[in-house]
Amino acid sequence: MQQGDLSGAAWRTSSFSDEGQSCVEVAPVGEGFAARDSKNPAGPTLSFELGPWRRFLAGLENG
């Protein structure tokens, strides 16, 4: 998935995080999602198409 400009992305941190100090942030981007380290918001990001993102979340939920 092409990432493009993420400067306007609406990043969100889990409510289970410790005030965003050591968590992953996610943002909807086009037809998928982007993820980044909350401690390094200017650092690298990962982009996922919607199908793989849903499978990833399902895997987390199912252990």
How much of the sequence is in beta strands?
A: 25-35%
Instruction: Report the sheet with the most strands, covering strand number, pairing sense and barrel closure.
Output: 4 strands, antiparallel
Spatial arrangement of strands, main beta sheet: 1-2-3-4
**Shape assignment:** flat
H-E order: EEEEH
Span between termini: 26 Å
What count of helical segments does DSSP give? 1
State Rg. 12 Å
What does this structure look like?
The protein is α+β, with helices and mostly antiparallel strands and about 60 residues long. About 20% of the residues lie in helices and about 30% in strands. It has 1 helix and 4 strands, in the order E-E-E-E-H. It has one helix spanning about 50-60, and strands spanning about 10-15, 25-30, 30-35, 45-50. The protein has a 4-stranded antiparallel sheet with strand order 1-2-3-4. A hairpin with a 7-residue loop joins strand 3 (about 30-35) and strand 4. The longest helix has 12 residues, at about 50-60. The N and C termini lie far apart (about 25 Å). The relative contact order is 0.21. The mean pLDDT is about 85.
Task: Chart the SSEs and their pairings.
Blueprint: E1 12-13, E2 24-29, E3 32-37, E4 45-49, H1 50-61
Antiparallel strand pairs: 1-2, 2-3, 3-4
